[in-house]
Structures are given as C-alpha cells and as structure tokens.
C-alpha cells in the first residue's frame, strides 16, 4: 500500500511540474507568435500598397539568404524541419540567434511576395525560446527536448487557431508512425495556453464550417477513397518538386544570396506569365476554394513551383500554408472531375495534403473538426489516412524518423531519417501485389 502511495505521489509531482512548465512555454510562445503575426501582417499590408511590390523579390531573397548565412545558418529553410532535426540530433538545442534571424528573414520574404507559410517560423521561434528557457534553468537534455516539442505544438496552435490539432502535430511530426505519449500532456497545455494568449491579444483565426455533406452512401464513400488517393499523389508531387528545386539550386555555382537574386527573377517571370495569386500566403485563394469558387485546374502545380523556388533560392518561411493552398485548389479540381461539391472537397483536400506531405494524419483529421466542423470530419479522416499511406516513405520534413512500413510489400530500414530511407519492393508470390508483379514480368518477357 505504501509503495502505491509513493508511486502516486511521484506521478502527482511530475504532472504538476509539467503543467507549470508547459504553461510557461505556452505563455512565451503565445506572446512571441502574436508579435510575429502582427509584424508580418503590418509588413504585408505595407507591401501590398504598391501594385508591383513583388519586383522587390530578388532583393528580398538576397537579404533573407544573406542574413541567414552570416548570422544563423540554422534558420535556413521552412522552420519546423530544423526543429525536428534539433530534437533528433542535438537534444533540442537551438541557438538563440535563430529566433530574431528567422523572424526578420521570414518577414522580408513574405512582405515581397515569397510563396511560404507562417507556421514554420513560429515553430522555430517557439522551439528556440523553449530551448533558451531550458538552458536558463539548466534542465537536462530529456527535459529540453520535451520543452522544445511543446514549443512546436504551441507555435502551430497559436498560428492556425487549432489548439488540439497543434498539440497532436507537435508529438506526431517527429516520427512517421509513432506518437510520443510522454509529451502529450505538456503539448496539450502549451498549445491551449498559447492559442488563448494569442486570441486575447487580438489575433483572429479562420474557421469555415462545412454545411453541405451528402448523405452517406457507397458511391460517395468510394469517391472519398479516390480523393484520398489523388491527394496522396499530390503530396508526393509536392515533395518531389521541393527536391527538384533543391537539386537545381545546388548545381548553381553561386553563393546563397546570389541564388536568391536568381530565384526572385524567376518568380517575377512566373508572375507576369501566370498570375500574382500564387505569391505570399495565398489566403484569399484558399478561402475562395472553400467557398466553391472555380480555380484554374493547374493552380496546385504552380503553387508547388512558386514555393519550391522561394524556399530553395534564399527565402525563409513555413511550408504548411502552401500545403493548405495546394490541398484546397486540388480539392476543387478533383470535385470537377466527378461533379462533387467543390467547397467540401477543398476542405478535405486542405487537411489531406497536410496528412500526406507532413505524415501527420491524426493531427490533420483533428484539424478538419476544428476548422470545418464535425459533419465533414468522418470523410476527411478517411481521405487523410489514405493520403498519408499513398505519399509513401517521403516527407516535406526530411529529418522525420521512420517508425513504420506503410505496406508489408515495401522493405525499408526503421529508425532512420526519411531522407536516408531507400524503399525496396519484396512481393510474396501468393499476395495480390505479388501476382500482379509476376504477371507483369511474364508479359515483359514475351
């Protein structure tokens, strides 16, 4: 009996400890996120006062790349990826200089029209401040990692106004197919606190309840399954587009700042060739897609290209908002194929692309409820899981660690970062896939 009471006492103290620490992290991240979002909003409004503000993109990408290169190289990229890398490789240690550099570089990029998001910088700023907090009070490596993960959750929650999805995102995004349950409580607390701090300080969020959902039937359910497959393919295309941009940038014999000038010129050319709707966050286009407005069919491909060029040629910012854009417009495209409600499938596409590209099907499914209401949630969840599986063993976050195989017929090495994973196919002769593979081989021989 005494032993049981002792165990409960230890657990009680541990819970109180993490309730307090997570609350502090939520407060810190909520305040920093609010400051970042207000500065970002002001700079974007100022830039858009000029009709051709995007002509400053070469200078903006040059400055962004130069600031990062010479002041804080760890601030490069889309934010969340670097925090994941810090958790896996450096026990959550993030240099203090990353915080101001990431903020300034992202504001410069978005103000000039760079195609990036705002959640990655908030995750990196939140993670950086959490790491500094841990160092200030001399926490050990294990506690620092937990605090940094709380910073990811809090940053995501306060940016999108989705405290539950944000909390799950922080503990789900580190591994493909695994959730860190020991960080679940502090992640929830930090996410909720951060969200309420930002709300209280005037940050408003986008919610769009979906009222039109057809009565459940076999035909509609099959269309949702096909939608999940389609969105998974779109997720894989986005990841490959980012890789192609990285390879092209790597082949240029110039420094990063000079590459920024080249990337800015390319984006300006694309704007004059197509449209300026692919610049910046693209929130107007996302909202139009959710309202059922017709969008040009190749919009999702152009947004991939704009985003890849921006991120790989000196720009700084997140990747989730572009994912939302691509998911929403690809959803309207899919709905046009089968004569479905475009707003409903824009919503399903928005969360399904996140599930596939980021390998976070649980967080994406919860986000569907928080953003679009419970009516669409069952269908969105099915599409999210299928998209997650269809994307394969790849991710917009190369530092994610692989914890599952997405098919027993695919051989991959567990415990490795996804960028180092090589998928090999091994079919059992009696399996359906094996029979199809053997039949294909025989046809080729003939």
Question: What is shown here, in short?
Answer:
With 446 residues, this protein is mainly alpha-helical.
Task: Explain how this protein is built.
The strands form two sheets. This protein has a two-stranded parallel sheet with strand order 1-2. Strands 3-4 form a two-stranded antiparallel ribbon. It has 446 residues and is mainly α. It is built from 17 helices and four strands. It folds into three domains: 199 residues, Clc chloride channel; 173 residues, Clc chloride channel (Orthogonal Bundle); 39 residues, no CATH class.
Element layout with pairings:
Elements: H1 2-47, H2 57-71, H3 80-89, H4 98-111, H5 119-136, H6 141-160, H7 163-172, E1 175-176, H8 184-200, H9 218-251, H10 256-273, H11 283-290, H12 299-312, H13 320-338, H14 342-358, H15 361-372, H16 377-390, E2 401-402, E3 410-411, E4 424-425, H17 432-445
Parallel strand pairs: 1-2
Antiparallel strand pairs: 3-4
Helix pairs in contact: 1-4, 1-5, 1-6, 1-8, 2-4, 2-10, 3-5, 4-5, 5-6, 6-7, 6-8, 7-8, 7-15, 9-12, 9-13, 9-14, 9-16, 10-12, 11-13, 12-13, 13-14, 14-15, 14-16, 15-16
Strand order in the sheet with the most strands? 1-2
* CATH class category label of the largest domain: Mainly Alpha
**Rg over CA atoms:** 22 Å
The CATH H-level superfamily of the largest domain is Clc chloride channel
Task: Assign a percent range to the helix content.
Answer: 55-70%
CATH architect. name of the largest domain: Orthogonal Bundle
On the 0 to 100 scale, the average pLDDT is 88
How is the biggest beta sheet arranged?
2 strands, parallel
Share of β-strand residues: under 5%
What global shape is seen? globular
User: Separation of termini?
Assistant: 75 Å
Secondary structure tally, helices:
17
Low-pLDDT segments, ≥5 res: none
Number of strands: 4
Total domain count? 3
Helix/strand/pairing category: mainly alpha
Which H/E pattern describes the elements?
Answer: HHHHHHHEHHHHHHHHHEEEH
